[in-house]
Amino acid sequence: MTMSESDVLALMRENAALCNLEAEVIVALKAYDIKDYHLVENQLRNIVVCLQRIDDVRRRNHDTPLHELP
User: Fold this and answer.
1) Which CB contacts under 8 angstroms, 24+ apart, belong to 24-28?
2) Separation between Cα atoms, residue 69 and residue 55, nearest integer Å
3) Residue 3 gets which letter from DSSP?
4) Of 65 and 29, more confident
5) CA distance 15 to 62
6) Which segments of the chain does DSSP mark as H helices, in order?
7) Residue 32 DSSP class
8) pLDDT band at 61 (very low <50, low <70, confident <90, very high)
9) pTM for the complete prediction?
10) Given its phi and psi angles, is residue 52 left (phi above 0), alpha (psi -120 to 50 degrees) or beta?
């Protein structure tokens, strides 16, 4: 089974959103390790934003037929 260009783009969008989440979690864990709780709080807000973006990307990929994505 071959994937269309739009299918690949949809997967790339979701992968990028997941990578952003991973990066934010890593920074939060490092901040927690050095007891920088202000940074931890900021990172938690960033993590929530990343989770919302992942949800948006998945909803967009699910709601739009893959062959119609830009």
Assistant:
1) 24/50
2) 17
3) P
4) 29
5) 15
6) 5-33, 37-63
7) H
8) confident
9) 0.80
10) alpha
Token pair 């990343």 in the structure block, residue: 50
Q: Which residue has the tokens 């989440």?
A: 21
Q: Which two tokens stand for residue 58?
A: 């998945």
Tally Cβ neighbours within 10 Å of residue 25.
15
How is residue 54 written in tokens? Answer: 């992942």
Summarize pLDDT for 3-56 with one digit per residue, the tens: 788 888 989 999 999 999 999 999 999 999 999 999 999 999 999 999 999 999
Residue identified by tokens 């050095």 is 34
Distance, in Å, from the CA atom of 52 to the CA atom of 1, rounded to the nearest integer, reads 31
Whole-angstrom distance, CA of residue 13 vs CA of residue 19: 10
